[in-house]
Amino acid sequence: MSNLRFLVVDDAIFMRTVLKKMLSEEGFEVVGEAGNGIDAIQMAAKLKPDIVTLDITMPEMDGIKAVPEILKVSPDSKIIMCSALGQQAMVVDAIKKGAKDFIVKPFEKSRVLQAINNVMSR
């Protein structure tokens, strides 16, 4: 499972850095990163990542709107939503649109790995 390829999407560079560090420490490959939903769709189309970690609240296009568009251009990608506390309704909306799991900020490595295992075992 360590050969999984990730696209990390968050408008906060700090959050992308934290997540990329966690993933690379586990032997995963981060093939790209984006700061909004529009860039995420373009990168998903080009990179076809195994897993996309997708922030909910971003400028230009939020994660909720990006979910179905990412799945159109990269149907095999699994999407894990990244949410702040109090965004449960938006997470449910994203899952209805095709996201497979979610993690809450600040990220706990054990929960990130659990979400990865969850989406890859489905």
UniProtKB/TrEMBL annotation:
This is Stage 0 sporulation protein A homolog. The keyword Nucleotidyltransferase does not apply. Signal peptide: none annotated. Gene3D superfamilies: 3.40.50.2300. May play the central regulatory role in sporulation. It may be an element of the effector pathway responsible for the activation of sporulation genes in response to nutritional stress. Spo0A may act in concert with spo0H (a sigma factor) to control the expression of some genes that are critical to the sporulation process. Keywords: Phosphoprotein. GO terms for biological process: phosphorelay signal transduction system. It holds the Pfam family Response_reg. InterPro entries: CheY-like_superfamily (IPR011006), Sig_transdc_resp-reg_receiver (IPR001789), ST_Response_Regulator (IPR052048). PANTHER family: TWO-COMPONENT RESPONSE REGULATOR (PTHR43228), TWO-COMPONENT RESPONSE REGULATOR ARR22 (PTHR43228:SF1). SMART domains: REC. Residues 5-120 form the Response regulatory domain. The modification 4-aspartylphosphate is found at D55.
